[in-house]
Amino acid sequence: MKIGIMGAMIEEIEPILSNLDNHPPFSSLDYILQNLNQLRVHNIANNRYFEAKYKGCDLVVAYSKIGKVYASLTASVLIQHFNIDYLLFSGVAGALREDLKIGDLICATKLCQHDLDITAFGHPYGYVPEGKIFIEASKELILTAKEVAKEKKVELKEGIIATGDQFIADPKRKEWIRKTFNADAIEMEGAAVAVVCDAFDIPFFILRSISDSANDEAAFDFDEFLKHSSQRSAKFIISMVDKIIDERG
Ligand code: SAH
């Protein structure tokens, strides 16, 4: 079995790699690479992919860079080059819903692209011919996540995640996305990963820890909470990997 773990930014995958390779929990990628133990690094299409053995299972960890295009590229490489069986995404997101507070964990039930717009031709927002407005994440992996949450006694929320190539820090745009797609959280990669995994029929799971509320303070909050929220998400993803290995390894 091979599991792909993806983030968009270096800060999102550092806590995953440091957990896997027995480094101090908050070590930087430079530190991890200098003290490389069981990681193999591959350079493909201007990105690094970190291959590791973990509890007898093969893992490939990668960060894509920010946005839908880079996320699609990384998801495609994980699937086509590395032949992963599952894709787990770990990262941060802005909250669209009132009850989602900074640090909270939310997994996507389904995802959409809020900036995909050919409405001039009479189509709904987020739709292109032969595509889908919403793509559902793997129900099986969501079930696994719920079991992990119960066992670890952490709260895991669920909801619709809207993705687009924009950092949302604007109450008006936030409200529009919330209303148009009934979305709960906002980020810049999830739906791209969903489209690729859906096309290749690879079960995927998108987890985000809230870093900001997509409002006027979003940029400030993001910088303040990126590290902490990334670590929360990474910790949960590692527990999910443990569970997947226990159940299916
Ligand atoms: N500070 C970074 C840019 C971060 S962009 C820099 O200067 O390089 C925001 C990243 O976090 C994206 O990967 C996105 O998926 C997620 N994200 C968090 N809050 C978001 C928000 N309010 N709107 C859109 N994406 C958000």
Characterization of this structure:
- It contains seven helices and ten strands.
- The protein is an alpha/beta fold.
- The longest helix is centred in the last third of the chain and has 31 residues, at 218-248.
- The mean pLDDT is 95.
- The chain has one domain: Rossmann fold.
- Residues 8-9, 66, 91-94, 167-168, 186-189, 211-212, 214, 218, 222 line the site of S-adenosyl-L-homocysteine.
Give the overall shape, derived from the CA principal axes: globular
Q: What is the CA–CA distance across the termini?
A: 6 Å
What order do the SSEs take from the amino end to the carboxyl end, as H and E?
EHHEEEHEEEHEHEHEH
Largest sheet: 5 strands, mixed, barrel
Query: What is the helix content?
Result: 25-40%
* Radius of gyration over all CA atoms, rounded: 17 Å
Number of domains: 1
Task: Using the 3D structure, state the CATH architecture.
Answer: 3-Layer(aba) Sandwich
The kinds of small molecule bound in this structure are:
S-adenosyl-L-homocysteine
Strand arrangement, major sheet:
5-9-8-6-10
Structural class assignment: alpha/beta
Number of strands: 10
Low-confidence stretches: none
CATH C-level: Alpha Beta
Whole-number mean pLDDT: 95
Percentage beta strand: 25-35%
What structural keywords apply?
single chain, 249 residues, alpha/beta, Rossmann fold, five-stranded mixed β-barrel, 7 helices, 10 strands, 39% helix, globular, binds S-adenosyl-L-homocysteine
Provide a brief overview of the structure:
By secondary structure, the chain is α/β, with parallel strands linked by helices. Helix content is about 40%, strand content about 25%.
